[in-house]
Amino acid sequence: MTIDTDMAAMHADLDAETANAVREKCAARVRKIVLEVLNIPASDRKRGLPDSAGLHIEWGADSLDLIDITMSVEDEFDISIPDAEADLIDSIDAIVDRVLKGPAPKGALS
């Protein structure tokens, strides 16, 4: 199973242990994207930041980084994130929440 729209549909129906495992698998993929986009080396202390850490403040992402992260997440999980939602995403946890929500409704991409 890939973590994409199928995962979002299943997530609501899973027992807590399985839902947590799915969430962690999704978070690992999002973390990898953030580390790659921000070009954070293995030795950087930022690798130890919690998933709730702010992308701007703690991770040091600028607005272009956030656009790149959003586009990479959309490609990785085969979803579309409306601009209005993308502007509110400020942590790995928030990205994972959005991915688990599933694809955007048609017409909501502006």
TrEMBL record:
Record's signal peptide: none
Q: Which domain of life is it from?
A: Bacteria
**Annotated keywords:** Phosphopantetheine, Phosphoprotein
What the entry lists under Pfam families is as follows: PP-binding
Please list the residue ranges annotated as the Carrier domain.
24-103
Keyword set includes RNA-binding: no
Reply yes or no: does the keyword Phosphoprotein apply: yes
What is the protein name stated in its UniProt record?
Answer: Phosphopantetheine-binding protein
